[in-house]
Amino acid sequence: MTTQIVLAVILIVMAIVILAGKGDWLIAGYNTASKEEKATVNVKRLRLIVGLLLLVIAPLLFMLRDHTDKSIGLIFAGIVIVITTVAVILANTWAKKK
């Protein structure tokens, strides 16, 4: 139970840091990209996508804390997979510079 609360708080803190523009090193792929690759990314949009992703998953984790039913866990996993897939698609389309 407390694990979900701790993870939710960590995700919220990470989202705040990323949305404030101080956590680009937390964004997987972007932090290891070369300068040329980083030049092709609209970093403000990427921050928004990743920050919102974390802010959406955090309350889901918090809500999951009281449920021990495995079907609720599967529903949660499915929601996270869908949300993450949408975020990856947006990061590879909307967050790219034209």
Treating each run of at least 4 consecutive H or I residues as one helix, how many helices? Answer: 4
**Approximate shape:** elongated
What does the main sheet amount to?
none
Spatial separation of the terminal alpha carbons: 45 Å
How many whole angstroms does the radius of gyration measure? 15 Å
H/E series = HHHH
Helix content: 55-70%
Question: Unreliable stretches, pLDDT < 50, 5 or more residues?
Answer: none
Structural class: mainly alpha
Number of strands: 0
β-sheet strand percentage: under 5%
Mean pLDDT across residues: 92
Number of domains: 1
Map the helices and strands:
Blueprint: H1 2-19, H2 35-38, H3 43-64, H4 70-93
Can you walk me through this structure?
The protein is an all-alpha fold and 98 residues long. It has one domain (2-93). It contains four helices and no strands. The longest helix is centred in the C-terminal third of the chain and has 24 residues, at 70-93. The protein is elongated. 17% of the residues are buried. The model has no long low-confidence stretch (mean pLDDT 92).
